[in-house]
Specification:
single chain, globular, mainly alpha
Length: about 140
């Protein structure tokens, strides 16, 4: 069981890295990467027991649903790939950790975005990929928790 858990952590890190790089370069989080993350999150949660699977599933549906609503009503601001990505993160990390991840990701995006706007490297309404910030937040969360 320990070997499988370690392997799932490895896959999680590889997939989140690929998602961050892809989003940075093409501003998309493709299903070819987000769907495997969902599967890894389900398997990882399931290995921890039915209660963890249920709790993480509820967290994933809630957080992912909120992101999907934002993507639906404001598609220029966020895409459905972000909703799928955060759903996979929630399945893997669980409720307290996904909240911490989102706080870190949002803070980092606001700080970097503010710096880039002040330094006139980007414009106020210019899009920035959120996937790299989610990845950094998830990795830092795994280190802290």
């Amino acid at each position: 069981m320990f070997v499988l858990t370690g392997f799932l952590y490895f896959l999680f890190v590889i997939l989140t890295f690929l998602l961050a790089v892809t989003d940075y370069f093409i501003m998309r989080l493709p299903d070819k990467l987000t769907f495997p993350l969902l599967g890894i999150g389900l398997l990882f949660s399931g290995l921890k027991g039915s209660q963890v699977l249920f709790d993480n599933g509820v967290a994933a549906l809630f957080i992912g649903g909120l992101f999907a609503l934002v993507a639906y009503f404001y598609p220029r601001g966020m895409g459905m790939g972000d909703a799928k990505y955060v759903t996979g993160l929630a399945l893997f990390l669980g409720l307290p950790s996904i909240v911490f991840t989102l706080a870190l990701a949002t803070s980092a995006a606001l700080i970097l975005g503010g710096f880039l706007i002040i330094s006139k490297r980007i414009k106020l309404k210019q899009q920035m990929p959120f996937g790299p910030f989610l990845t950094i937040g998830a990795w830092l969360t795994m280190i802290v928790f």
